[in-house]
Structure formats: C-alpha cells, structure tokens
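Lab meeting, action items carried over

1. Structure of the two-component assembly. Owner: GW. Status: complete.
Input record:
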Amino acid sequence: MTQSKALRPYLLAAPQTLVFLFGLVLPIAVILIVSFWNFNGIATTPGFTLRHYIGIFTSPAYLSTYINTLKFAFLVWLVCVLISYPVAYYLAFRIKSTKWQTILFLICTVPFLTSNIIRMISWIPFLGREGLINKALMGLQIVDRPVEMFLFSDFAVILAMVHLYCLFMIAPIFNSMMKIDRALISAAEDLGASAFNIQKRIILPLSAPGIAIGTIFVVTLVMGEFATMRLMSGGKSSSVGYLIKNQIDSLQYPAAAANAIVLLTLTLLIVFAILRVVDIRKQL
Amino acid sequence: MAQATQSLSSSSEKKKRSLSDYLLPGFFGLFVLFLYGPMFAVFLLSFQGPEGQLFFPMRGFSFHWIMAVFGPQRVGDFVTAFQRSLLLGLSIMVITVVLSVMAGLAFRYRFRGSNLIFYLTISSLIVPSILVSLGLGIVFNLLNLPIQWYSSALVGHLTWTLPFAFLIMLGIFGRFNPAYEEAARDLGASDRTTFWRVVFPLIASSVIGVGLLGFTLSYDEFTRTSLISGETNTLPLEIFGMTTNVTSPALYALGTLTTIFSFVLIGVALFAMQKLEQKQKQAK
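Predicted assembly:
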C-alpha cells in the first residue's frame, strides 16, 4: 500500500511526460543526428559531416536570413511591449471593478482564440493596393497614387505578427501587475512620489517578470514561424523558419536540421539571457 | 519656496494624471479597434453580391459567398477539412484535459524528478514550432509510422496544448484546499469517489477552460501541423493553400464562418464555466 502511494505521482505524471519524451525530446535528438548526415542532392544517407553547419556560417545569404529573423523578432517584441504595457496597466490599475476587469480582458483575449491565418487575411482590405489605407491617403491627397509598401512588405509582416502575438505579452504583464501590492503605490503617493517615479521605481520593476515571460513567448513565436512571413511579405522577405520549410520541401533534410539546431540554440541563448536578468520563478 | 515648488509639482501632477485618465482609455479603445477592426471588415466583405471583390466598397449584398463555401469548390474541400480539424481538436481537447489533470494531481505530491518533469513540460513552450514539425516528421518517417493529421499532427499539437494546460492546472491545484478531500477520506470515501465527488466538481469550471483552450489552440494551429499532416489538410492548412490562388470574397466568407464558429464555442464554454462557478458558490 505504501509502495503504491509512493508510485502514484509517477503514474499520474507518466502519460504527459511520455508525450514530451516522444513528441519533443526524441524529435530534437533526431534533428541533431540528422543535421550531421550526408545529402547528395537527391537522398539523405547516415554519416557524419559538418558541411551543413559550415554552410550556414559561411553563406552570406544564410547569415542575412538569420539577421533578418532577429530583426523581426526585435521589432515585433518592441511594438508588443509598447502596446502591451499601457494596455495591461490600464486593465490592472485603472479598472476598479473585478467584473469589468474580467470582461475587458476577455475582449482582448477572444480574437486570439480565432484562426491565425484568417487574422492575417483580414489585413488585406486595409493594406492592399486598393485597400482602405491607400484610399484614405489618396482621399486626403497625401499621395497621388497607391503606395505599394503596405501589403507584401516588412511593415505588413510586423503589423500582422503584433496583431497575432501581443496577447502573449499582455497576459503575463497583466498577471504580474495584479500581484503588485496596492499599498506600495498609496505609500509612494503619500510620500509625494510623482506618477512617473511610481511607474519607474515600483510598477515597472515589479512587472518586469511579466515582461520577461511575454518576451520569451513573443521571441519564440516569431523565431519559429513561417506562415506570416510567407503570406504578409508575399515571399519577399525570409526568415529561418521559412528557410527550413523550403529546405524540407526540397527534401534537404540535413540542411534543414542543421538550421533548426542553430535556430534552437539561438532561441535558447536569448531565453537564458532573459532569465539571467529577470527572475521569473515567482510568477510560475 | 520649497513649499511653493512642491505644491506646483503636485498640481502639475494632478493635471498629468487627469490627462492619462483620457489617454489610457483612448489607447485601450484604439487597441480593441486594432484587434477587431480587420475581423469586422472581413465580416462585411463576405456578404457582398456575386460581383464582390477583396476590397471596399462593398459591391451588393448577398449570401452568395457564404453559400459558395458549402458548394462544390474548384480550389479545395472545406467541409472535410473542417471535419478533420473538428475531430482533431476534440481529440486534443480530451487528451489535454485528462493528461493535465493527472499531472496536476501528481504535482500535489512531492516526488523526486518533479523538477525535471516541470522543466521538460514548459521547455516545450520555448522550442520554435518548426522544430517540432520537422523532428516529428523525421521520427515518424524513420519508425515507418503513418504521417497523418490523426497521428503525427496529433502529437505535434499536444506538445503545444499540454504545457499551457499543465501550468493552468498547477495554478488551480495550488489554490485548492486539501481539507475537502481529507474530510471525504475520513468519512471513508475511496480515492476514486473522492476524486469524482469532491475534487472534480471543484475544478470542473477550470477544466472547461482548459478544454476550450486545448481545442482552439489545436483548431487554429498551423506551423505544428504544416509539415506533418500527410497528404490531407486540416482547415488552417486548407485556408493557407487557398490564399495563394483565391482572389474572391469566398476567402473572407470562409474566414467569417470559422470565426463565428470560434465565437459560438467560446460563448458556450464561458457560459458553462459561469454556471458551474455559480453552482459551486451556492454549494458553499
């Protein structure tokens, strides 16, 4: 009886753990192995070569794709923070009734539960050549012919990604802000601290773990995806995810695997850097 | 003098605060517009007449394009793709709920290796999606397992839904008062009875929330399905394929339908959660 009691948590946690061993650990291990295999232009054969890694670090095209991916990750992150912080602050501090807090937070959440692809498509009526933005600009006589830059541009990619992923920033920041002891703020106000100083000295530092978790989410999501890049840039811009997808489509598995390993390493480095700066454990 | 500056600063501070009272709700309003505006535009444009196009102004009003989704298609088969996505989403929902509740129960005990399992689970959130797709594709290939939406894509989706569900379950069980269970056991209830009669009713509304999250994450998932759904498409893949060759409002009509479907589902789940919570409060 006591023995079965001791075994119980293991039995309960086993199914979920098996899913991750089979669906996460094994695939990554296999990717690592395949990234050293040979590819002769048609078929993949087991072996050991560093060619694919050397290819990544010596090809200017690959390197610029990596830089491009990091650029997008940074810009999307920046816009997400700039939008999410005031939104979360408004919800957490300015809405006094719990009921309204829940309702407004739900209003922010619902679109994120609908299809990503549809949410990308829904920018076409605004950004296209005949889209609303161009019509408005022409109506106001700011430009005399449609601007091509809106759809199929870096701008469209960033806009769509922010639209898709900013909830992943808002939710953790909101969560951190809700945990801030309101007495701290009243005390600071009583001592004559300015609104700016309250933000800088109290709210921002105490919501930093939320920002860190949001950052991890947003960066990981942007680094690993290719659909938005493909659809919103019209194939003009590239990301590592898109590159990997193209390599798989042309059956270059070892090269795709090597890129995947480099991408994973890069992502993990960013995550560990964030974790070094901010302690998120209290949030979990 | 010092007093004067202080009163000056506090009055300017008041002014600033009242300014932010307008700015923050305004910003929040703009954000909501940013979230829902595109969705609404697509909604309107899908009710155009047969001569409708992808851009405003609306050309006529009819259900032509909505009906077209159900009709025989030149470009794709949405009804079967929808059925696949629905079935996959429901399977993911059930598996996610069962495994995460079990894991949540396991983590109420202290056991060796719990940290490892914890980090293994949440690490799934920071691995770029494309790696899971690529890796599972290779694993299934090497093991000679069928690559289908109900096999490889199913595992891929679980690596995304389970970590969220697990974290939510940890939060729920963290707030859970063990006294109820102990009381039930003291009264001679078996473990099974205790779970179904005491524990489950208390977590039921959260379980619905986790189920909804699991379903919608799977129903909308693209990257983790894209390389491993075999020769058949789930709905997001079908829609993505459609974006490259469809230039009629049929695209929007499909978007409107899937969005309405998501909304109805969210509505039903929220309603059920609220009812259950009310019931619980009454019981207490």
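2. GW to write a short summary for the group page. Key points so far: Chain B touches chain A through 93 residues (CB under 8 Å). The CA atoms of residues 133 and 224 of chain B lie 5 Å apart.
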